[in-house]
Design a protein that fits this description.
By secondary structure, the chain is an alpha/beta fold. It has one domain: Alpha/Beta hydrolase fold, catalytic domain (Rossmann fold). Helices cover about 40% and strands about 20% of the residues. The protein has 14 helices and 10 strands. The strands form 2 sheets. It has an 8-stranded mixed β-sheet, sandwiched between helices. A two-stranded antiparallel sheet has the order 1-8. Helix 4 links the parallel strand 6 and strand 7. It is globular, with a radius of gyration of 18 Å.
């Protein structure tokens, strides 16, 4: 597959018509029960199970220091947090503060959902609150990526007193259906190949499922080298399609837009210039809606700026959290 180049993307992104017909946020289009993630994940996992209302959550803490804990909420929904470890940005940020990850209910190292166990947006908000309580911190810094950005906005709306700083990284829109997706405009040939796999994938064809995943991942990056490294140095991590579908249905009921104007804690909105998964215009609208927020564009990144531009990502986030 040809390596994506920034200049052609610039021209295509500027010509895009408004709106999007579908919502794919950090692989909402995946339909397998597991997939591949970057294997260069830094220090070994050292987490534990934490009790939340109606669930147990696997929580991992790295780094240390005197600063407030930074809780990083991964995308999906339906994924564990392993893909975040493709970047060493978190370990650098962890030199000054604890950096905390967790697997959302039913995913990864968190126990699988039991029959009748709920998995709603309200559940996920209270799960995140349980993580905060476990940390023993009255206030935390929060960073949400993709679907995780939506979740931390929802948490902040319900528990603003516990939010010291909020970072939204390539976040879904406050109203899920308004998230603008550019795959069909920027990568029409890749989307066509994905669509052609749909029938075989629905029948459970493992080869089709694997090919679909690779096609999707190829659209997340600007750097061909970074893309290839992410795919070539892959290891298993988990995705649960049923959780994705359950949460997609539940969050369709909500509109967080009216909540954003109530945010009075420092907020940083981040986007990759060439994010085709969540268009930069989505981040811009969030930035404009939150009083006093800051806006940062990563000019050589797609959907994962912490992976494609880790040094600049650390600089921007560290500067923000230090304010």
């Amino acid at each position: 597959m040809p390596t994506p180049r920034p200049e052609p993307l610039v021209g295509q992104l500027r010509r895009l018509a408004a709106g999007s017909a579908s919502v794919w946020v950090l692989a909402a289009a995946f339909s397998s029960s597991s997939m591949r993630a970057a294997a260069d994940s830094g220090p070994a996992e050292q987490g534990s199970l934490v009790k939340a209302p109606g669930a147990q959550l696997y929580v991992e803490r790295r780094g240390g220091g005197a600063a407030l804990p930074l809780v990083v909420v991964n995308g999906g929904p339906g994924f564990d947090h392993n893909y975040l470890h493709a970047s060493d940005a978190w370990d650098v940020l962890g030199k000054n503060r604890p950096v905390v990850f967790y697997d959302q209910r039913g995913n990864g190292r968190s126990p699988a959902l039991k029959p009748g166990q709920t998995c709603t947006l309200a559940d996920h908000i209270e799960d995140l609150e349980a993580v905060r309580v476990h940390l023993g911190a009255e206030r935390i810094d929060l960073l949400g990526h993709s679907w995780g950005g939506y979740l931390v906005m929802a948490y902040a709306a319900r528990h603003p007193e516990h939010v010291a700083h909020l970072v939204l990284c390539d976040s879904a829109a406050p109203k899920w259906g308004e998230t603008r997706i550019l795959f069909g405009d920027v990568y029409p040939e890749t989307v066509a190949r994905k669509d052609a796999l749909g029938f075989a994938e629905a029948l459970g064809d493992a080869a089709a499922i694997d090919a679909n995943i690779k096609e999707y991942l190829s659209m997340l990056f600007v750097s061909g080298e970074k893309r290839d490294a992410f795919l070539a140095h892959a290891d298993d991590y988990h995705y649960d399609r049923s959780i994705n579908q359950t949460l997609n249905a539940d969050r369709a009921r909500f509109d967080l837009n009216p909540e954003l104007q109530k945010f009075h804690f420092p907020t940083l909105v981040i986007t990759g210039r060439f994010d085709a998964n969540v268009a930069p215009s989505t981040a811009w609208k969030i930035y404009r809606a939150i009083p006093g927020s800051r806006f940062a564009v990563f000019e050589r990144s797609g959907h994962l700026p912490f992976y494609e531009e880790p040094e600049e990502f650390v600089r921007v986030v560290e500067d923000f959290l230090g304010k």
